[in-house]
Amino acid sequence: MPKRIFASCLCISLICALLPLAGHTGWGDFFKGLTDAVKSKPALSEGDIVAGLRDALKVGAGNAVQGVSKLNGYYQNPSIKILLPENVQKAEKTLRMVGLGQQVDAFELSMNRAAEKAAPEAKALFWDTIKQMRFADAKKILNGRENEATLYFKDRTHTKLQDRFKPLVHQAMADVGVTRNYQRLNDKMRTLPFVDRYSFDLDGYVTNKALEGLFFMLAQEEAKIRKDPAARVTDILKKVFAASK
């Protein structure tokens, strides 16, 4: 292996080990550096570029999963909070007027808790998808739309995530009382006048909302990867890519 290529590989390995310590702020320059490498640094091999992007996406995906998996990761994030199903929303005012406000709140909280419990399952699927990435994928992501990486993940994982999430959500809902809370509300709603009554797939509702929130956060992480400046990382990356000259 030429010395310049070896030096590039060694530097990239060291940077990839250190980048997680830089937190969110380092990813804009990291992404820009990789894009520059694709366009103007032929001494860096396709394997180096793919390896670097894999590590960047691994951290971005890891941050997204970690963010939604923590306590209140869904519930206290207004962008992804799982709201009451439509039929409950329509009856919410009446339910609160008849003294069921506490039960309504408990149901909403329990749905979000179920999503938070199921979310870590996404990590392994994201990791598998990253491992399968090829140079053509990496180049498309680097030069693509603002949410190209998110679309890449969504295209390859959404169906599998639904299949994995639904039983996990079902179990998590049983653990945190979602189904019980909903059944109580539903029973009460059946006794109230002017309230719609229809069958409702609660597992499907929470699963879909959980995945919507996860991919929303993934897109947020991608935006950071593409845009956020980080001066202290810039200098290091300049050295890395200068080594390939």
Secondary-structure topology with pairs:
Blueprint: H1 3-18, H2 27-40, H3 46-69, H4 86-97, H5 101-118, H6 122-131, H7 135-143, H8 148-176, H9 178-190, H10 202-227, H11 231-242
Helix pairs in contact: 1-3, 1-11, 2-3, 2-10, 2-11, 3-6, 3-7, 3-10, 5-8, 5-9, 5-10, 6-8, 8-10
Radius of gyration: 22 Å
Average of pLDDT: 75
Low-confidence stretches: 1-26, 229-245
| Count of separate DSSP helical elements | 11
Structural class: mainly alpha
Total individual domains:
1
- Binned strand content: under 5%
Biggest sheet layout: none
Shape, principal axes of CA atoms? elongated
Q: CA-to-CA gap between the ends?
A: 15 Å
- Number of E-type strands: 0
Helical coverage, percent range: over 70%
The topology string of helices and strands comes to HHHHHHHHHHH
